[in-house]
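User: structure tokens for Nucleoside diphosphate kinase, please.
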Amino acid sequence: MQKTFLMVKPDGVQRGLVGEIVNRFEKKGFQLVGAKLMHVTEEIAGQHYAEHKERPFFGELVEFITSGPVFAMVWEGEEVIATARQMMGKTNPKEALPGTIRGDYGVTVGKNIIHGSDSPESAEREIAIFFKEEELVPYTKLVNEWIY
Ligand code: RTP
Ligand code: MG
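Assistant: Done. Predicted tokens:
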């Protein structure tokens, strides 16, 4: 079963959107296998955003993600990586459709509420940056066999 790394960014935590965001993924049918409220250090930010190192907004990106606590999560389910990205909406909230997280709650691209892995390779890499193996809690859902 596929896993993805999702993170409520500092703006989402400050605005009290953690519960709303968790709710959306739970109701969709995905399974939470790890979660923690934490501060992102400059070192973790540098690793996480390594692909953006040369971009002009890299400094702002690191400054923002280290500015306050984030809510880091690992979610599991069929095609969860791509589906979570759809549920998040486009990177720029101005282009994100209503009904998506960024479309419903975001305004600016720099503070777009949530991060989600964009590929299986990114998911594996990002989960390893944020979580130790023993912090993930896989379990079998006993209630509905058709929900992941
Ligand atoms: P994320 O990594 O946060 O899930 O977002 P994403 O894949 O949709 O976007 P990505 O291209 O990976 O960019 C990472 C984050 O950088 C900020 N950004 N700022 N000022 C700008 O033009 C700009 N472009 C991107 C966004 O906060 C984006 O989420
Ligand atoms: Mg990205």
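User: Anything notable?

Assistant: The mean pLDDT is 95.
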